[in-house]
Every structure is written in structure tokens, then in C-alpha cells.
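Dear colleague,

Following up on yesterday's call, I've attached the two folding results inline so they're easy to grep. Please treat them as preliminary; we haven't cross-checked anything against experimental data yet. The first protein's sequence and C-alpha cells come first.
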Amino acid sequence: MGDTLVGIQPDPEHPKRVRTVTLDADDISDALDSLRRFRSPDAPVVSLYLSVPEDPGQLKAAKSKLHELVKPVRELAESDELSHDERESLRADAARMLELESLLVPTLQGRTLAFFRCSRYAFEESVVVPRRLRDRVFLDATPYLRPLLAVLDESHRYCVAVVDRERAWLFTYYLGALEAQDKEQDRVLRKPNYAGHYGLEEHRVRNKAEELARRHFRETTDALQQFVQDHGCELVVVGGHQEEVPAFLAFLPQPLRQKVAGTFVIDTHAVTPAKVRDEAERIVEAYEREEEQRLVAQALERVATGGFAAAGLEWCLLATDEQAVQLLLIHDDATAPGRACDNCGWLGLDGDPCPVCAHETRATTDVIDEMAAAVIDAGGQVEHVYAETPLAEHVVAALLRFPVPFAKDHAVA
């Protein structure tokens, strides 16, 4: 389900009046389904990504950035490079983009707006991403989706458990957002070492305290297992006092322990969602980078040993055309111009007419973006790699479903 964003803007025709500006923002998965299907044969599609800072004092800079991003759209709309209909479409798109300024406060603070529009075909789609992405604007025949795909790359659903000897908080962490879901609390002794004046009594109280703590950890483990199942969590992050986190982990059954992506130390007497989110974000970031390094190493090792893999733009484009890509790895925000055939789906660095069906091809600003969308349409996955890895030398690599021979020497040392 999406949201309707509402803002107020002065009416240019009646300066003393204001008018309401609305924007329908869809869930990222639903929006991608619509965006991947859209093609504009004779008018550019505008793709805008605008991050809005949390600090209200920086909102003026965000508004200036919006105007800066709209500028090339307006300039192209007034140039002689396009037809009359294309220019009119871009003028309407630019005007609509400027309306977004009224939505920056407070609706989008701390988030990123991904906005796609082609006025000629009455197409508009928006997504609000709960994290900062790089500001950019793209003009092409298709929506520019790589930043959204990169967000979904890291869309593991995490369970975050904060545990001490008497309490437990369970959260879900997904797409940068943390939600409090459940809280467990057990009876414990007022002080684990409280025992009056007698050593025997002290020993009895200590044993009772340890017994209560063990029972609490067992019950929390059961609650955690049920929580992971109910919410579809793929991974787990555990936080708590430094000495108590290992004690709790020892109670986890092996299948659940294998899901633990990392741990953190936190004062459980001062737990807030904001603190937990910050700690979870740090763990998630480290886990995602380690996963990227592992996948790149796996792909390049397969290339070097002649396995089901490919490396380099030309080879991966060929594998994409053959629908052989199981997982496409893309280095950071790398882009490359190329050509695409809207008749048969062929993609390449150059070629007109299409070498497969002989239809006319179109130039694309970023053929890697087209390749990523094609891989997903064919049932594959895409992973953007932000960690420092040897993938930087190749730009892209892929794990394949079946071998795709390539004439050039792409051996990896």
C-alpha cells in the first residue's frame, strides 16, 4: 500500500491564494512492477531522485538542489533537439517537478523521493525510500531504476532482539525502518547478589536468580523463533549488555544461531527505537558489505575456473540476452551508454539495426540499468556492490544458470 503526500503551494495565477499539491507514492515493489513495463517511444521519461535531510536547517539546500536538477530538463525542453510534442512533454514534467518543493517539509524529511514522469503518456509514479540516495536526474526512454534496485538488494528483513536478564524487545528492521513489535518481561530477584547476612542464603538467592535468568532466556528464544517465523525475518541482530549477549546466544538453537548477522552492546535501561535503529543499521551495513565481497569472490573464481559465470560488460550483456543470468553484480553506481531493441529485448554496447531481429535500436543513457531490469524480468537477481572488491576492474559480473561462451579472453587472474 502506498501513501498520498500532501503539500501547500502558492497559486501562481492568484498570489494571495494557495493550492493543494498531492503526490501518490507507491510501495517500492508495486512501483517497480509498473516502472519495468513502461516504455516511451517518442518522449523522454524523467527519473528524479531527491534526498531530503532530516535537519530543517538544511531544507533550503534541498530546495535549491531540486531546482538544480530541474534545470537540464527545462533546458532540453527549450532546445531544438526534440520535436514539439517532446518539448511540451518535458515542459509539463519540469513544472510538475517544481511542485514537489511544497512536499519537502515535513513530509519527506530524512527520506528520498524517487519520481518518474512522462507527461506525453500521462505516466507518473513515485516511491518514498526511508534512506538517503544520491541526488540525480535521468532522461531516457525508460525509467531509471538502478537506485531502487540497489535498495532492494539490501532488503533482507531483520529481526532485532535486545535482551537482558529480565526483559526483551523484538523489532523488525526493513529498508532502513525499525518497528517495535513485541516486548517480553519476566520476574527476577531484586538483586542477584542480595542475600541478607548469611552465605547460605546468598548462595540460594544467586542460584534462584540464575535459574530465573535461564528461564527468561529460554522463553525469549521461543518468542524470537516465533517472531522470526511470523514476520518472515531472514536474519537476526542481537543487542544487550556485553556480558549477557553471549549468554543469550548460547540458548539459541543452531538453525537460529546461523541467522545471526551480528551483535551490539547497548544499555538496556535506556533502550529507544532510535538507538536500536542506529545500532542495527551499523550491523546491517557491515553484513551487506561482507555479503557483497563473498558474492564477487564466488563469481570471479567461477570465471577463472571456467564455471557458470561471466565478467565484463560485453560478456554480461551477452548472457543477459541469452536469459542466462541468475545473479548480476554491479560495481557501485557505474553507468555505460549502449543500445537497446524494444522489439526483441536485445541489449548491447553498439548495434543498429538490431543484430537479432534487424529492427531499429535506440540509444540508452545507461545500458547497465536496462540490463538490470532485463535480468529481473527473466527471474534473476541484481546486487549492487559498494564494498571495495576486484569487481571495479570489470564493472559487472554474473553468476549464470548455464554457460555462455564469449569469444574474447575474459580470464580473471
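Below is the second protein, in the same order (sequence, then structure):
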Amino acid sequence: MTEAESFRARTDFVIELSRRLHAYGTTSQRLEAAVGKVATRLGLACEIWANPTGIIISFGGGIGPGGGPENTRVLRMAPGEINLAKLCAVDAIAEQVLAGELDVAAGRSALRALDAPPGRWSVLLNILCFGLTSASVAVLLGSGLAELVSGGLIGLLIGLIAHAAESRPRLAEAVDALAAFVATALAFAISEFVTPLALDSVVVAAIIVLLPGLTLTNAVSELATQQLVAGTARFAGAVTTLLKLTFGAVAAMQLGRALGWEMPAHQPMAMSDAAHALALAGSALAFAVLFRAELRDYPLVIAAAIGSFLATRLAGTAFGTEAGIFFAGLLISAAANLYARLANRPGAVIRVPGIILLVPGSTGFKSVSFVFERDVFQGLDAAVTVITVLVSLVAGLLFGNLIVSPRRSL
């Protein structure tokens, strides 16, 4: 292989690696750091700039002889979605290439082989987990049996809508507003004709998977690490999603009121501690499926989600909510980095599920809802809560990185 061919093969591998990390939900600062380290190990001088909708990557001169000419690629991509199994597979392929077990051409082919579509059973399980997540969150929000059943059934329907949107671009553009409209309209109708419900809890539980709490957290994390363009863009995208969800919910409420439906003040009877424990375990299992973790990683994912939730509750009871979230974020970040170093696998396997029950997606939704309903003061109060939670969580994640440094940033 000539020097030019070698340069081209190495750059093609690094570009494909960048695509995969972006597609599988890696934040900009982690993607840039990981790709930069791999490129250096391959003898390439690489500059990369990542944002939620694209990557600009430039190779210039190489390191040592045969580095190759300057070469810049612009990659236009859709925002990535968390896929822990494929992220681990990408990391393993990169390890094999760096160790010399695979040449760069074979490594690139292995990366492309990850494009296999999910099977029918995988899709069905994913939809079922929308319902399981909604039912579990309804219980964790302090709701009763009626809210659990209603939230779970509506969550299943939202899962079907979300799946249908994956292959229909026009539907995908409006899926958030449509899902919130359907969830709110059905909850309102059940409350009117079947049994009184705590509407807020049911609606939040039904659309919980669509709420951009994790996106907001990633955005603030990027801003905190001086990824200003990426963080601003991701934050704007999360706020836009909140606006679409809120519009759909408010439109359904206005329709119900126009039809003469009443919204009685209903205070459900909270379920037992055993029910809360089962709901926590159910939500953790559902997120393991929704994050597409490998089956062997399910115990880790479930333990991370449950452990961070319990740590938040315990520390929050002793020192306050913000301190509890900070402590949980620190614990999860340090544990994820330690796992990555010991197991030589991405720490995201622990970090992502560990923070999912801590992110302020539902509070952000309530904040925008209050503003839509002209209750500005409650909206501002909820917005301050969102900011406080985000700052506490991101600070915990950053301090966790100080305690145990990350392995290759993933």
C-alpha cells in the first residue's frame, strides 16, 4: 500500500468512527476527544468540530512521513440517539484497530456492518417499554392505580406513534406535538367518562420518553466544557421539543374544555412502598431496552438507574434536593469512569442510565406549560428549578471526572 493509500484508509476509518459515535448519541466534547486520540494513535494530525447536526473534520500533513495532504470533510447528520450496544461495538472495533488486530479497512467495514436494522421483536419490545416506562413513572410521581393503568396504555400508543414516525419524515417533524395532543386528549377523556385522574401526572408519565431532559443535561454539559456552539444548538433543540410537546398538550386541554369536559381536582391515593420499588425496577428495565443496551449489560444499566435514584433520595433527605442530585451525579460519573478503566469499555453504559431518572424533563415541560397558560410566576419558578437541577447534576458529573478521569472520553 502506498503512502497516499495508507493515508486515505486511515482517514476513512476515522471519519466512519466519527459518524458512528455521533449517531449513537455521544456528546460533542466526548466525541471530539475520543476521535482526536484515535487519530493521533493512527499517525494523523486531525482537527474535528462536532455539533448536534453535523461534523467538520480536517486532516493535515499527518504525523511523521506519509501523513498525506490536507483533507477536510463536512458531514451533515441528524441528531444522534442513544444506542449503548452499538456504542460498545464501535469502541471494541476501535480497540482492535489500535491494537493491530484489524487493519483500518477491515475496521471501517466492521463499523459499516453495524447498520443492520433492528428485528421485529426488538421493535415490539421497544414499544412495550414505552408503556412500561409510563406506568412506572406514574407510580413514582405518587399516582394511584387508575393513573398507572391509564398512563401505561397511553404510553403504549405513544410508542406506536413514535415508531411510525421513524419511517415517515413528515410525521417525525410533528411527532412531539401529536404525541402530547393524543396523550392529553385521551387522559382528559378517561377522566371525564371513566374515572377521575390526576391529569398532570398521567400526561407527564405518558410522554416521559419524549421529554428532552437528557438533551438539556448534555447541552449544559457541553456549555460547561466550552463547547459553546454545540451546547447552544442542543439547548435550543431541547427547548423546541418542549415547546412542541407543550403546544400539543395545551391544544388538547382547550379542545376538552370547548367540549364541556370538566377537570376536577383529583388527589390520588399514593401506592405502597412495594409498588414504588417495583415501579423503580420496571423503569430501570425499560430504560435498558430503550437505550438498546446489550443483554449482558442489563444488570449494570438497571443497577446504575436504581442506585442513582436512591442516592438522590438519601442525600436529598439529609442535605436538600440540589445536594442530593449533585452527589448522585458525582457518584455515577466516578463509577462510570472507574468501570470504563477496569472493563476497557465505554463508561456510558453506567453514566447514561445513571442520570436518566435525575434529569429535569418533566419540570421543564411543566414550566413551559405554565407559561402557555399565562401563569408566568409558576412558570418562572419551575424554570428556576430546572436550572438548579441542571447545574447541580452537571457539576456532579464534572467533579466525578476529577475523582476518576475518563477512559478515552466515552
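For the second protein, one point worth flagging: The first helix runs from residue 3 to 23.

Best wishes,
A.L.
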